[in-house]
UniProtKB/TrEMBL annotation:
Residues 45-101 are annotated as: Disordered. Signal peptide: none annotated. It comes from Paractinoplanes rishiriensis. GO terms for molecular function: hydrolase activity, hydrolyzing O-glycosyl compounds; polysaccharide binding. This is CBM2 domain-containing protein.
Length: 207
C-alpha cells in the first residue's frame, strides 16, 4: 500500500477556497461599516409638559377651554340718519287724484246777435274768500272773422292776445272775493255759427 509523505504539496483548490472565504469576510466587514447606526442623535425631543393654569384662591373657576373661539363677525352699525327699513316695498295703490278746486268759474252766453256780428259774454265768479287772478281762453269757429273790441264791465281791463282763432284774456287785477265780473267781446261773423269751439277759465270749461 502506498503511504503519503509529509512533504506532499497543498492542492490548488484548497488555496482557492481559502481566498474566496477571505474575500467574503472582507465584503461582510465593509457592508457592516456602511450601514448607518442609530446613535440616538435624530430622536425627537421629549414632549413638552402639559399646559396648566396657576392655582388661584378666589374660589372654583370655570373650566378653561384651550380651543380658540371664532372671531366675531363685524356687525352692521347704522347711524340714526342711516336707519334702513326692510319692510315690503310693494307699491301701494295710488289714491284717486281729485281735480283742483275751481277758484274762478265762467259761464258763456250771447248777449246780442246782428247780421254780421254778435256780442258774447263770459260771466266770471270768484267762489273763494280771497281775491283771485284768472285767465279766459275762447276758441271761435271759422265763421267768426274778427274781433272788433272787448272789455270788462266796471273793472280794470285785462290783457288780450290772439293766436289764430284762439283769444286769451288775462286779469291785470285780481277778482275780489265772492264777486263777479262780466268779460264781453264783439265779434264779426259771416252768418255762420257764433258759439265758441271752446271756452275755458283757468283751464276749466265754461258752463
Amino acid at each position: 500500500m502506498h503511504q503519503k509523505s509529509g512533504n506532499e504539496p497543498i492542492p490548488p483548490w484548497f488555496l482557492m477556497t481559502l481566498g474566496v472565504i477571505a474575500l467574503i469576510g472582507l465584503a461582510a466587514i465593509s457592508i457592516v461599516r456602511l450601514i448607518p447606526h442609530d446613535d440616538g442623535s435624530d430622536a425627537l425631543p421629549p414632549p413638552a409638559p402639559a399646559f396648566t393654569l396657576p392655582a388661584t384662591t378666589a374660589g372654583p373657576q370655570a373650566p378653561v377651554s384651550l380651543v380658540p373661539s371664532p372671531s366675531p363677525s363685524p356687525s352692521l352699525s347704522l347711524s340714526p340718519t342711516e336707519t334702513r327699513s326692510f319692510e315690503s316695498t310693494a307699491a301701494t295703490p295710488s289714491r284717486t287724484t281729485r281735480p283742483p278746486a275751481r277758484n274762478v268759474t265762467g259761464q258763456y252766453r250771447v248777449l246780442e246777435s246782428y247780421g254780421d256780428s254778435f256780442i258774447g259774454e263770459v260771466l266770471l265768479t270768484n267762489t273763494t274768500g280771497a281775491p283771485q287772478s284768472w285767465r279766459v281762453t275762447v276758441v271761435v269757429p271759422a265763421s267768426v272773422t274778427g274781433l272788433r273790441t272787448s272789455w270788462l264791465e266796471s273793472l280794470p281791463q285785462p290783457r288780450h292776445s290772439v293766436s289764430g282763432r284762439t283769444h286769451t284774456w288775462t286779469s291785470t287785477v285780481d277778482l275780489a272775493a265772492r264777486s263777479t265780473g262780466q268779460l264781453r267781446f264783439h265779434f264779426e261773423h259771416d252768418g255762420g255759427a257764433v258759439s265758441p269751439s271752446s271756452c275755458t277759465v283757468d283751464g276749466a270749461s265754461c258752463r
